[in-house]
């Protein structure tokens, strides 16, 4: 299948993605992405996320071990958002609505120099249990409509604290991306007698033959047909589950194992502790569209910002102005590269 000058439809986001493999060969004289995340100390007394360190708000971190969560000291959203920012539709040009929510920080390990790739199996599985418990707790709140769990990893994407951690933004509204995804999945279910959009994508013959990276009992790792990033992958469950809360222990264990294998693939592909943006797409938890939320299929997305070990992918003029992302790597080629990586070669 051609990877040059082709538009591909992204069914979850309802937008076109440009696949332009020839652009990867363009001469490059710009900045190079150099890894600076190596040789971190096991404990950093100046790191606000390490055990036994006093955070910026004056609170002392406990001597925690393993996965640990706490409220973000500098939240982008708050349950205490001022009520004078209530919804105002009188002026359609200057509409406002409350920015209420709850922000959490999730430390993967007490060790400052760890990554999810380097954790032992028990510690990695504890992380998926933390994801589940945090989602279940936050999604049950009456003031929360959407729970996005994510990890920003690497100074290349602007991370200021290298301690292994993720975040949760539990919002009092359904985010724009979640709204697009829900609309697409609900429409697909209506048009295909209740069939899940993600399950349809997963079971598609082209996905199975050319876009599959790994397949196990409970999950598959695939490169999306309309991947927006050069080596983007999704972890998709074989059983229809709307959120982490619906997963049983065996699924959570395998999710941890599959997740770790995939980040190790990225480390090997990019020859470093690879930067990444990881997104856990759980169903919205608002009451207004509960029926549509049932058609949502949980999936986990990796969006590595690297095109190759030394080049970052930037969204510049055309992509910022058009909202049509240009992927310089053919998704089928990316899947083959990732599939052929020998994970046994990974070393801390």
UniProtKB/TrEMBL annotation:
Q: EC class of this enzyme?
A: transferase
**One Pfam entry name:** GalP_UDP_tr_C
GO molecular function ontology, one term from the record: UDP-glucose:hexose-1-phosphate uridylyltransferase activity
Any note on cofactor binding? Answer: Binds 1 zinc ion per subunit.
Q: What EC number(s) does this enzyme carry?
A: 2.7.7.12
Question: Catalyses which reaction?
Answer: alpha-D-galactose 1-phosphate + UDP-alpha-D-glucose = alpha-D-glucose 1-phosphate + UDP-alpha-D-galactose
Q: In which pathway does it act?
A: Carbohydrate metabolism; galactose metabolism
Q: Which GO terms describe its biological process?
A: galactose catabolic process via UDP-galactose, Leloir pathway
Query: GO CC: one term?
Result: cytoplasm
- InterPro entries listed in its UniProt record: GalP_UDPtransf1 (IPR001937), GalP_UDPtransf1_His-AS (IPR019779), GalP_Utransf_C (IPR005850), GalP_Utransf_N (IPR005849), HIT-like_sf (IPR036265)
Key word Zinc present in the record?
A: yes
Asked whether the keyword Transferase is assigned, the reply is: yes
Residue sites binding Zn(2+) per the record: 47, 50, 112, 163
Entry annotation: catalytic residues: 165 (tele-ump-histidine intermediate)
Required cofactor names: Zn(2+)
Can you give the residue ranges of the Galactose-1-phosphate uridyl transferase N-terminal domain?
6-174
- What region holds the Galactose-1-phosphate uridyl transferase C-terminal domain? 188-342
What protein name is recorded for this chain? Galactose-1-phosphate uridylyltransferase
């Amino acid at each position: 299948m051609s990877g040059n000058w082709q538009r591909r439809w992204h069914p979850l986001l309802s937008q076109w993605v440009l696949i332009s493999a020839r652009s990867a060969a363009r001469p490059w004289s710009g900045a190079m992405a150099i890894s600076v995340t190596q040789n971190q100390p096991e404990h950093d007394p100046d790191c606000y996320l390490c055990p036994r360190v006093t955070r910026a708000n004056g609170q002392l971190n406990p001597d925690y071990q393993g996965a640990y969560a706490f409220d973000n000291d500098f939240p982008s959203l708050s349950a205490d958002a001022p009520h004078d920012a209530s919804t105002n539709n009188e002026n359609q040009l200057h509409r406002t609505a409350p920015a209420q929510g709850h922000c959490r920080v999730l430390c993967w390990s007490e060790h400052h120099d760890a990554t999810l790739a380097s954790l032992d199996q028990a510690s990695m599985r504890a992380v998926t249990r933390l994801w589940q418990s945090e989602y279940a707790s936050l999604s049950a709140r009456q003031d929360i409509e959407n729970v996005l769990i994510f990890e920003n990893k690497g100074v290349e994407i602007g991370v200021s604290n290298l301690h292994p951690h993720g975040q949760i933004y539990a919002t009092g509204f359904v985010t724009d991306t979640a709204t697009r995804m829900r609309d697409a999945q609900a429409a697909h279910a209506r048009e295909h007698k209740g069939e899940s959009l993600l399950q349809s994508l997963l079971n598609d013959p082209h996905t199975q033959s050319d876009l599959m990276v790994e397949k196990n009992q409970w999950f598959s790792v695939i490169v999306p047909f309309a991947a927006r990033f050069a080596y983007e992958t999704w972890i998709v469950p074989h059983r229809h589950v709307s959120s982490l809360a619906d997963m049983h222990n065996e699924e959570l264990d395998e999710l941890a194992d599959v997740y770790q294998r995939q980040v190790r693939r990225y480390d090997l592909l990019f020859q470093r502790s690879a930067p990444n943006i990881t997104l856990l797409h759980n169903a919205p938890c608002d009451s207004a569209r509960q029926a549509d939320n049932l058609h949502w299929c949980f999936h986990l997305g990796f969006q590595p910002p690297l095109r190759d070990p030394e080049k970052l992918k930037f969204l510049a003029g055309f992509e910022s102005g058009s909202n049509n992302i240009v992927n310089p790597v053919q998704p089928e080629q990316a899947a083959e590269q990732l599939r052929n990586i020998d994970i046994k070669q990974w070393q801390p």
